[in-house]
Design brief:
- By secondary structure, this protein is an alpha/beta fold.
- Among the domains are: 144 residues, Rossmann fold; 95 residues, ANL, C-terminal domain (GMP Synthetase, Chain A, domain 3, 2-Layer Sandwich), CATH 3.30.300.
- The strands form seven sheets. A five-stranded parallel β-sheet has the order 4-3-5-6-7.
- β23 and β24 form a beta hairpin.
- The chain starts with a helix and ends in a 30-residue tail after the last strand.
Length: 518
């Protein structure tokens, strides 16, 4: 089924039900359907053709949700980009995907204008929240305010492209992950199944709608007729807590940095958030200490630990009743899909052995935009069609539960041994006073690499390099103990709050880094 169908169905079945809450704006399903049809009609009037691309530079807000569904209604491909992108990178993406239209918030128009100048072309531009008219652009507010007859193009199919999500890269142009309507619907159908979503759910998301994890919140709520509450950031946890209460939120997606702040709130309890039914975590592994605090503070809310990639949106989940006994597992394949762990020869590895995770199912991407070489590397023949080679190292226990080990490129090789950064980070988080932790390998003339820990600590804890190293030596083998510890006020984070040591060096990069998404 095509994604826009869900909005149309809900507009008939529950027209007055709140679909989107963003700041002071509340849109019903009927309004979301009508507004998106009006934007779609205007795009069609410009000569827009099915398969054309629409770039979004939008903060989390109602405009983003309406724009996604408008693009899909007119047969277009939504290309959401994080608002922090710089003009030079934006222009490179323009050259690659040749957008027919751009929808942007007014505050981002200087970046859009500069990118268009570098691109050498000016697509149709729709501007939202403009305080005054901007030459050669269309006003989002004017378009949704005027009734228009929209006739959907003929021949739209569920295997048409729905999304081009650009993965971040340390160098070069980010790759555009191509996901069809069928891919997205398959992934989100599976997600709504294991989360038991219904029209009664109200999900609050601070995850940007340029990110796979954020997009799935929007689509799953549209599928079941629930309500999506959008916030722009987790910078002020107290504000988010108040919003969770006032909107009677039932579902709350998290990433580890957010979860740590949330779990550390002293007044968090079942009485504080009585309606909260579940929480999810993705993008990176949740430290067991954070998991324990969440479970203790909110015992009534089920916690789902998950793993995925932009290339398939979601891959695995751990049922909440397994979290206490397997706190570092990411579970098993989501329903309707399959995964396996293979060695360098493509053969399945035994329980306890490490290998590459490969994924099969209807949620696996079509490929990378105009990049046959990268597509051929990632998608290879499997038992039931093409399977995705994730590039991530995993192991499984005797019961078949999966454990993320590391990105293949992140493995630290020291003293002839291989070290998973995540294993060291889990030990660091277990030290009282450690608020944030990340580990990297630093080149060393003798050992090849040595381990360096980066820590943000509570000043009252009085932690020192020696205390951190002594704690690690108690729980880790000698070659895994950090040889250096650097203290920070806070560690650099991506747009979704995921700790990434190079985030400060590349603030314009998207957060959709292959391997730790959704």
């Amino acid at each position: 089924m095509r994604i826009e169908t869900f909005i149309a169905q809900n507009a008939i079945q529950r027209p007055g039900k709140t679909a989107v809450v963003a700041g002071d704006i509340r849109l019903s399903y009927d309004e979301t359907d009508r507004f998106s049809s009006r934007i779609a009609a205007r795009l069609a009037a410009t000569g827009f053709k099915p398969g054309d691309r629409v770039v979004f530079l939008l903060d989390n807000g109602s405009e983003a949700v309406v724009s996604f569904f408008a693009t899909w209604k007119v047969g277009g491909v939504a290309c959401p980009l994080h608002p922090s992108i710089k003009a030079e990178k934006l222009a490179e993406i323009f050259r690659s995907i040749e957008p027919a239209a751009i929808i942007a918030h007014a505050r981002l128009m200087p970046i859009v204008e500069a990118a268009c100048d570098l691109f050498g072309n000016r697509p149709v531009i729709i501007v939202a929240q403009a305080a005054f008219p901007i030459d050669d652009t269309l006003s989002y507010e004017d378009l949704i305010g005027v009734d228009a007859v929209f006739q959907p193009p003929q021949g739209l199919r569920e295997d048409d492209l729905a999304l081009l999500i650009h993965t971040s890269g340390s160098t070069g142009l980010p790759k555009g992950v191509m996901l069809t309507h069928a891919n997205v619907t398959a992934a989100c159908t599976s997600i709504t199944g294991y989360l038991r979503n219904s029209a009664d759910d109200i999900v609050l998301s601070v995850l940007p709608l340029s990110h796979g994890y954020g997009i799935t919140q929007m689509v799953t709520m549209a599928m079941v007729g629930g309500t999506l509450v959008l916030e722009k950031s987790f910078a002020f946890p107290r504000v988010i807590l108040s919003r969770l209460q006032s909107e009677a939120v039932t579902g709350f997606p998290l990433v580890p940095a957010m979860a740590a702040l949330f779990a550390g709130m002293p007044d968090l309890s079942a009485q504080t958030l009585p309606t909260l039914r579940y929480m999810t975590n993705a993008a990176a592994g949740l430290p067991p200490t954070t998991t324990e605090r969440l479970q203790k503070s909110l015992p009534h809310a089920a916690l789902y630990l998950m793993y995925g990639q932009t290339e398939c949106l979601r891959t695995t989940y751990l049922p909440p009743d397994e979290v206490t006994s397997r706190p570092i597992s990411v579970g098993n394949a989501i329903p309707g899909t399959s995964v396996s762990i293979i060695d360098e020869n493509g053969l399945s590895v035994a329980a306890g052995e490490t290998g590459e995770l490969v994924v099969e199912g209807p949620h696996v991407m079509r490929g990378y935009w105009r990049d046959d070489a990268a597509t051929t590397t990632a998608l290879r023949p499997g038992s039931n069609g093409l399977r995705l080679h994730t590039g991530d190292l995993f192991r499984a226990d005797e019961d078949g539960f999966l454990y993320f080990v590391a990105r293949r490129d992140d493995i630290i090789k020291t003293r002839g041994e291989k070290v998973s950064p995540q294993e060291v980070e889990r030990v660091l988080y277990a030290l009282p006073g450690v608020l944030e932790a990340a580990v990297e390998g630093v080149d060393d003339a003798v050992f090849g690499q040595v381990i360096k820990a980066h820590v943000a600590a509570d000043p009252a804890a009085g932690l020192s390099e020696r205390l951190v190293q002594r704690h690690c030596a108690t729980h880790l083998e000698d070659f895994m103990v950090p040889k250096m510890v650097e203290f920070h006020d806070a560690l650099p984070k991506t747009a979704t709050g995921k700790i990434r040591l190079n985030a400060a060096k590349a603030p314009e990069a998207s957060d959709n880094e292959k391997g730790r998404i959704a």
